[in-house]
Design goal:
- It is a single chain.
- It is built from 11 helices and 14 strands.
- The chain is α+β, with helices and mostly antiparallel strands.
- The chain folds into 2 domains: about 180 residues, no CATH class; about 140 residues, Nucleotidyltransferase, domain 5 (2-Layer Sandwich), CATH 3.30.420.
- A 7-stranded antiparallel β-sheet has the order 2-6-7-1-5-4-3.
- A hairpin with a 2-residue loop joins β6 and β7.
- α7 packs across α10.
- The longest helix has about 35 residues.
Length: about 400
């Protein structure tokens, strides 16, 4: 029997602990993260960056148990350390920390991983149970089992948790709030054969423009970022600890704002495609920041352009609704005439306007780009689904 593909969704609920429960949760996070830093130091001394779970468990499990951690908590601490070094090796291998002579890379390779005191910790079903009808959870702490810990979530989130929650959950303390982040495995519906395609052109001024002419502007996001940048300059000039805390809080707020806008755009695009029986086509923009050159005063704007996040949101929402999704070559989509095929830079005399020098077709440049993305998706889908010749 062939299993249907799975979409992993994250549900975040807010915990509402009493003062006694909050103290127990704080002590638990602090102790498990102190223990994780100690295990990371042992792993670095014994194995360098190439630690493995079984040898590390042999070295550290007994000490963690003797230090007051439960069996499952000790296992999760060891696994978190191994995962942290695996991530570090991957970042080094992929060049995310620079070359061998990079100061950032040499610093990362020269010392063990250290965990923040309030870093998230993992709980599985042996040390965390949900009572969804009562709106409470029960979880292990260093002070004993913490029962009847209330949580708050929306009715849709509660329904999702009841039907699809599976695997581990993470306890997190952020900005004075206690959060529990659960993973839900949702089966993907079968992808339908598209009647046509919705081409989506992503940009900085207009975050997304579809081939139907729907335009999702980014002016409010740009204005919000400029306002946050002015506040950031003021806080950086203060150079105090409280200013540093406010800067971190502000960065998270700005990221949440951009994420919310991208969610809204992705939801609207997928809803239109699902309602009309069409697929969604986007430009493949990997590496565009390295290829694009902009004036100095626009570099911050380019670096904060959330195109990848928008594409990821559209992709997973399309999978959830059974909408076909494809990425196509972005070359010259804003300079090519979709009617006659003439491609030239002067077809786009300004950022907002397109006018073909051969046939005279004119219109908004981003809509024309979306139409070209749609046309390329038609050809690409036919090629992908073309039956392959039998081997001789």
């Amino acid at each position: 029997m062939i299993k249907s593909p799975i979409v992993k969704l994250v549900i975040q609920v807010r915990l509402l602990p009493t003062p006694e429960q909050a103290a127990a949760l704080t002590d638990t996070l602090h102790q498990v993260n102190i223990a994780a830093s100690q295990v990371a130091a042992v792993a670095f001394e014994e194995f360098g960056l190439s630690c493995r779970e079984l040898p590390l468990r042999t070295l550290c499990y007994g000490d963690l148990k003797a230090g007051g951690l439960g069996a499952q908590a000790a296992q999760h601490v060891i696994k978190r350390v191994v995962d942290a070094y695996t991530t570090l090796r991957g970042n080094i291998r992929n060049g995310h920390l620079g070359g061998p002579a990079s100061r950032r890379r040499r610093k990362a390779e020269s010392k063990p991983v250290v965990f923040r005191l309030d870093a998230a910790h993992t709980f599985d079903d042996r040390c965390l149970s949900w009572q969804l009808d009562a709106g409470t959870v029960s979880l292990w702490t260093v002070a004993g089992r913490c029962k009847n810990l209330r949580f708050a979530c929306s009715p849709d989130q509660a329904k999702m948790l009841a039907a699809h929650r599976k695997g581990e959950s993470d306890l997190l303390h952020r900005d004075g709030k206690w959060l529990l982040i659960a993973t839900c495995d949702v089966s993907e519906p079968q992808v339908c054969e598209p009647a046509d395609w919705v081409g989506v052109d992503r940009g900085i001024v207009n975050l997304a423009t579809t081939s139907d002419g729907d335009n999702h502007q980014g002016r409010r996001l740009s204005r919000y970022r400029r306002w946050q940048a002015r506040k950031r300059v003021e806080l950086q000039a203060t150079r105090t600890r409280s200013a540093a805390r406010l800067l971190r809080k502000q960065a998270r707020r700005e990221a949440r704002h951009a994420r919310h806008i991208n969610h809204k755009i992705a939801k609207q695009v997928v809803a239109v495609a699902a309602r009309t029986g069409r697929g969604i086509a986007l430009e493949e923009l990997s590496g565009i920041r390295a290829r694009a050159t902009v004036p100095r005063d626009q570099r911050a704007r380019l670096s904060s352009w959330p195109f990848h996040q928008l594409g990821a949101f559209i992709a997973y929402k399309a999978r959830r609704h059974g909408v076909p999704y494809i990425e196509v070559d972005p070359a010259y989509t804003s300079q090519r005439c979709p009617r006659c095929g003439h491609t030239a830079r002067n077809n786009r005399p300004s950022r907002d306007h397109f006018e073909c020098r051969r046939c005279g077709l004119a219109g908004p440049a981003d809509v024309v780009a979306g139409v070209n993305v749609r046309d390329r998706a038609r050809s690409a889908w036919v090629f992908v689904n073309m039956p392959q010749p039998a081997p001789t």
